[in-house]
Amino acid sequence: MERVMETCLTFTQDGVVYALPVSAVESVVEKPLVTKLPGRGAVKGVFNLRGAPVALGDLREVLGGRDADLGRPGAVIVLNFPLPGGFRARFGAFADGVDEVTELESEAVNEGLAGSGGSRAVSAVAKRGDGFAVMVDPVALAVELGVDVIAGA
């Protein structure tokens, strides 16, 4: 299997360490005031970031398969990256906590492990200190949250 070295932002969700490529991360913000959205979709609300509305999804639901809970403590990872067709995805991902920016060498997971926990956004694993970090594909995360249809040019 091919190994890839990448600069990543690590974060925790339900006691598991995950990582996103820094190239997809715009910023990390303290939990903002969120306007909750009705319905049962993965996008749970919107918040104002520097005068622009940003869709918010709860990683607890997407990665852990548990009910969303925007009332718990945590941080929002604001992602902003290109999508096919000249569009960009910009959305917030609510996590239990954010750890650090670090270099990780990842290895793609096989089809049996990809999507463990019910998420197709899990793409690889990386050695991190004494343990591992689960790599998250930001495009697959956008699709799972449904923010690809919210993305603008």
Describe the structure.
There is one protein chain. Strand 4 (35-36) and strand 5 (43-49) form a beta hairpin. With 153 residues, this protein is mostly beta strands. The chain has helices at 59-64, 138-145, and strands spanning 3-13, 16-21, 25-30, 35-36, 43-49, 52-58, 75-83, 87-95, 97-108, 122-128, 131-136. The protein is 9% helix and 54% strand. The protein has a single domain, classed as CheA-289, Domain 4 (OB fold (Dihydrolipoamide Acetyltransferase, E2P), Beta Barrel), CATH 2.40.50.180. The longest helix is centred in the C-terminal third of the chain and has 8 residues, at 138-145.
* Radius of gyration over all CA atoms, rounded: 15 Å
CATH architectural arrangement = Beta Barrel
What is the number of domains? 1
- Shape descriptor reads globular
Strand line-up across the major sheet: 3-7-8-6-5-4
Structural class: mainly beta
At the fourth level of CATH, the homologous superfamily is: CheA-289, Domain 4
* Largest sheet composition: 6 strands, mixed
Helix content: under 10%
> What is the total tally of β strands?
11
| SSE topology string | EEEEEEHEEEEEH
Low-confidence stretches: none
Mean pLDDT: 85
Distance between the termini: 35 Å
Oligomer status: single chain
Strand content: over 45%
CATH topology: OB fold (Dihydrolipoamide Acetyltransferase, E2P)
The total count of helices amounts to 2
CATH class: Mainly Beta
